[in-house]
Amino acid sequence: MNAAVTLKIGTLDFNNNFDESLGIIFDKVDHDNDISIISFECDEPEECSLLQLFINRSLVFDYEWTAYKLANSLLPAGGFYNRVNAQGQWKTFYVDCIEQMNMVSIDEITKTLRTLAADQVSHYIESLESRKVPSWEEQALILNGEMKPQFNIQKHCFSIDNHQGGEQISGYVEVGTGVALHFNGYGDLTSTDDSGTPLYCDLINGELHAVIFGDINLEEPTHIINLEAAKLSNRIS
Q: What is the 3-class SS of the chain, one letter each residue?
């Protein structure tokens, strides 16, 4: 029993790149605006020459197949999804079970997060994001230049010694669109334990500010300090 394959690809991309010498016979071709949805049968969908051709030529597509038999074994439905991100980097997502695509266990994520050190959280979140296949709509925004690159968030751990002989305070700095300081044992009203940001530095109307949440029971910051007067150019010689 062959697999029934469904290919979703831009009509222009398909017309400009399909090679008739591959010998693939299509059962059905439908068009939805500028998208073509093509159906055909294949005995080994994961090894299809058409799939490799479109991957090699960096084309956006969805390529899915139904369960099929190979050497008396029933193999599950699956798919390949070729995507490009806002930085122009291509990635081919492989899903060996369609029903599991983009599904995650909240219990699994929560359990894992509780065991991670602060500097490991960002890497875990990135691994979760890498499992999600961007939707066709998200991909269209990127191709049209309407989706901006995501900011690369970096985390750096630190510790502050207590010169009075008490315990030191540890935490991490999170650098993204601004600079956030996190301290173990401190937080803010709207964040979970140890993920809060009592001190945040950002540009507001083009000027550097320090935003301080000095009271965990208040949603609004207790202090917003404009740091423009601290510019080196303002030093009085």
A: CCEEEEEEEEHHHHHHHCCHHHCCCCCEEEEECCEEEEEEEECCHHHCHHHHHHHHCCCCEEEEECCEEECCEEECCEEEEEEECCCCCEEEEEECCHHHCCCCCHHHHHHHHHHCCHHHHHHHHHHHHHHCCCCHHHHHHHHCCCCCCCCCCEEEEEEECCCCCCCCEEEEEEECCCEEEEECCCCCCCCCCCCCCCEEEEEECCEEEEEECCCCCCCCCCEEEECHHHCHHHCCC
Q: Please indicate, yes or no, whether the overall pTM of this predicted structure exceeds 0.70.
A: no
What are the pLDDT digits (tens) for 152-199? 556 778 888 887 777 888 888 887 667 888 888 888 887 766 667 899
